[in-house]
């Protein structure tokens, strides 16, 4: 791989939640040009409160991505991530980073400008773009025909999700992304989706019409990092093929080229479901279902067991992504 910074492979990673920073942190150590496109549909916790009070894009997922790509010392990052405890009545639950992003959004007339400035301040190794600068809301239709708005409400509705889309809260304007996001996608050597919540972290980005069209029309390969565990309220009982089927159905074509699937088993009773407030099972592999969708499957031990839960091993995943770019036997 060339040492010329201008010739580094361009990898665009799209998603949100806690899974995306794990992959970005490891990719940062590679000789690649990273662009992270981050969901803006979160409406829970500190992000949701800030959005409601200040009418700004929810900053939480953006904050975590900035930290994962930052070269600042640990103390600086810990301060940026610091969340006030419940004893602080006025600031309870808010992180300093969320407040800084919100303040700069107000000062500099928009979240795009704010993230650009913070990226320089935090010595971010890559590019971070909100999926949209508009105030978007996630909406869903369930199998029973009912509809609901709001990412938090959808996740905890305890219903099977049929379809999701995004709407512009403050106007009738069609949700859209900016030209920098489109250019990054169209010029990418590889587009990576996930890992993350299928309906609430990945699809909200792809449901922005011009962003989704760019992913479909980009000449680069699209790689989906399949979740290791199902997610209650979103993907109960899903196989890996079911995840891909939902993505393809939402965009109207089989656009997923490669799927990374973990094949290592999680020990019985390892996950502390009370601690993580999560009732989930390991995603099962459906080879035939994936083959029917014409995508290449790469199985490996991508599992990292830590803190009584199951995560992706960022280093192993990033190593595989680089091999996909360099190895024609894998990418063609």
From TrEMBL:
Xref: Gene3D superfamilies: CofD-like domains
Keyword Plastid on entry: no
Keyword Cytoplasm: yes
Keywords: Cytoplasm
Listed Pfam families: CofD
Compartmental location: Cytoplasm
Chief site of localization: cytoplasm
Alphabetized InterPro entries for the sequence: CofD, CofD-like_dom_sf, Gluconeogen_factor
Top-level division of the source organism's lineage: Bacteria
Task performed by this protein: Required for morphogenesis under gluconeogenic growth conditions.
PANTHER family documented for this protein: GLUCONEOGENESIS FACTOR-RELATED, UNCHARACTERIZED PROTEIN YVCK-RELATED
Family per record: Belongs to the gluconeogenesis factor family.
Protein name: Putative gluconeogenesis factor
Lineage: Bacteria, Bacillati, Bacillota, Bacilli, Lactobacillales
């Amino acid at each position: 791989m060339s040492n010329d910074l201008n010739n580094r492979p361009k990898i665009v990673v799209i998603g949100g939640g806690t899974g995306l920073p794990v992959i970005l942190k490891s990719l940062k150590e590679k000789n690649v040009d990273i662009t992270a496109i981050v969901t803006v549909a979160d409406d829970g916790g500190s992000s949701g409160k800030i959005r409601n009070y200040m009418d700004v894009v929810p900053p939480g997922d953006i904050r975590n991505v900035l930290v994962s790509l930052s070269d600042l010392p640990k103390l600086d990052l810990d301060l940026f991530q610091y969340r006030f405890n419940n004893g602080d009545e006025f600031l309870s639950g808010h992180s300093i980073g969320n407040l800084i992003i919100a303040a700069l959004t107000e000062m500099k007339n928009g979240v795009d400008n704010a993230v650009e400035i913070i990226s320089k301040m935090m010595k971010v190794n890559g590019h971070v773009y909100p999926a949209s600068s508009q105030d978007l809301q996630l909406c869903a239709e369930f199998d029973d025909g009912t509809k609901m708005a709001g990412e938090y409400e959808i996740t905890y509705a305890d219903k099977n999700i049929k379809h999701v889309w995004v709407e512009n809260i403050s106007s009738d304007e069609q949700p859209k992304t900016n030209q920098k996001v489109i250019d990054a996608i169209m010029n990418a050597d590889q587009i990576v989706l996930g890992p993350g919540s299928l309906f609430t972290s990945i699809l909200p980005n792809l449901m922005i019409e011009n962003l989704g069209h760019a992913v479909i029309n980009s000449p680069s390969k699209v790689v989906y990092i399949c979740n290791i565990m199902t997610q209650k309220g979103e993907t109960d009982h899903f196989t890996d093929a079911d995840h891909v089927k939902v993505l393809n159905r939402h965009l109207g074509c089989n656009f997923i080229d490669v799927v990374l699937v973990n094949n290592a088993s999680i020990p019985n009773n390892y996950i502390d479901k009370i601690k993580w407030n999560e009732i989930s099972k390991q995603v099962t592999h459906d080879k035939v279902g994936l083959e029917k969708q014409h995508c290449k499957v790469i199985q490996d031990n991508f599992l990292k067991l830590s803190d009584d839960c199951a995560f992706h091993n960022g280093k192993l995943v990033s190593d595989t992504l680089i091999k996909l770019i360099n190895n024609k036997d894998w990418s063609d």
